[in-house]
Design brief:
The chain contains four helices and 39 strands. The chain has about 350 residues and is of the alpha/beta class. It folds into two domains: about 90 residues, 3-Layer(aba) Sandwich (Udp-n-acetylmuramoylalanyl-d-glutamate--2,6- Diaminopimelate Ligase, Chain: A, domain 1); about 200 residues, Hexapeptide repeat proteins (UDP N-Acetylglucosamine Acyltransferase, domain 1). A hairpin with a 2-residue loop joins strand 21 and strand 22.
């Protein structure tokens, strides 16, 4: 890599302050960057690292004082750095071309132009794989499943029958899409399995993390809408509908038939009860338990989840409880002394 800083500034639409002759040869975090590296500052917690960094240039917000450093000022430094990475950083090379002779591809499976299928991958009858999509070793694609163009299906991903995957979707290793939803009807002391005859639809530009599971619908469709990003170790139950451009962080569990609006954020280890709706732009803090529907734009925290301001107020009161307890015991002691009968 050898890219003039002026080109990078133009790429992200930033204001370049400092050395216009700098040539960027690497992309690194503030603490590790050297004189020919580009880094970024998006959080004021890292101002001390910015002040001490050896980076040749740093992408920063518009209010940051350069302090003599070469900087590129933009409104959103993190997003700008992501665009630089997308443009300049080399993608992980695919180690195989065409269809490996060690893969199994059904005779009636449809393969688009430029498809790559690695050793040990399995493509079942009636499946279709879009142009330039990669199936890495051990991936299993079920009967009549459709995968769009420019997708990357990483090792040991399982996509069950009759699922639909859009274009430019990335699914990381070990994820399972389309397994049976958890549906059992009580019959006395026994449980009767409810056949899960729906499917899963993953729309365009979705990314799904390693070992995440997205269950097929009992009836109809479990849907992940365009642009959503799902972290590792997430569980999405049957008949859920995840809105466009939502973010679901690691170890979240979403119960069945729950609807998430657009741009919903579920932080790590959030649990969401079934048959409720979270509105557009809802944000749920880490380890929260959501038990009821939440209107658009609300930010909640806690278990059960309540508005953040209320949660902070209650937490502040909880911190005072030990002191209040001691004061109450002292008051009780004093009252007891006052209530003692006078000695004759």
């Amino acid at each position: 890599m050898a890219v003039p800083i002026t080109e990078i500034a133009a790429l992200i639409g930033g204001e370049l302050v400092g050395d216009r002759t700098l040539v960027v040869r690497g992309l690194k975090p503030l603490a590790d960057a050297g004189p020919s590296d580009l880094s970024f500052l998006d959080n004021e917690k890292y101002l001390p690292q910015f002040e001490s960094t050896r980076a040749g240039a740093v992408i920063v917000g518009p209010a940051v004082d350069p302090g003599g450093k070469t900087v590129v000022k933009v409104a959103a430094p993190y997003a700008a750095f992501a665009r630089v990475l997308q443009s300049l950083a080399a993608a992980s090379p695919c180690p195989f071309e065409g269809v490996s002779p060690q893969a199994f591809v059904a005779a009636d499976a449809a393969l688009g132009e430029g498809v790559r299928i690695g050793p040990g991958a399995f493509v079942a009858a009636g499946a279709s794989i879009g142009a330039r999509t990669q199936l890495w070793p051990g991936a299993s694609i079920g009967p009549r499943t459709r995968i769009g163009a420019d997708c990357t299906i990483h090792p040991n991903v399982t996509i069950y029958h009759e699922c639909v995957i859009g274009d430019r979707v990335t699914v990381h290793g070990g994820a399972v899409i389309g397994g049976d939803g958890f549906g059992f009807a009580p019959a006395g002391e026994k449980y009767v399995k409810i056949p899960q005859i729906g499917n899963v639809v993953i729309e365009d530009d979705v990314e799904i993390g390693a070992n995440t599971t997205i269950d097929r619908a009992a009836l109809g469709t479990t849907r992940i809408r365009r642009g959503s990003k799902i972290d590792n170790l997430v569980m999405i139950a049957h008949n859920c509908d995840v809105g466009e451009d939502s973010i679901i962080v690691a170890q979240v569990g979403v119960s069945g038939s729950t609807v998430l609006g657009r741009h919903v954020v579920l932080a790590g280890q959030v649990g969401v009860c079934g048959h409720i709706k979270l509105g557009d732009f809802v944000r749920v803090g880490a380890q929260s338990g959501v038990t009821k529907s939440i209107p658009d734009g609300e930010e909640v925290l806690g278990a059960p989840a309540i508005p953040v301001k209320e949660f902070k107020r209650l937490t502040a009161h909880l911190r005072k409880l030990p002191d209040l307890h001691d004061r109450l015991k002292d008051i009780e002691k004093r009252l007891s002394e006052l209530e003692k009968p006078e000695q004759p």
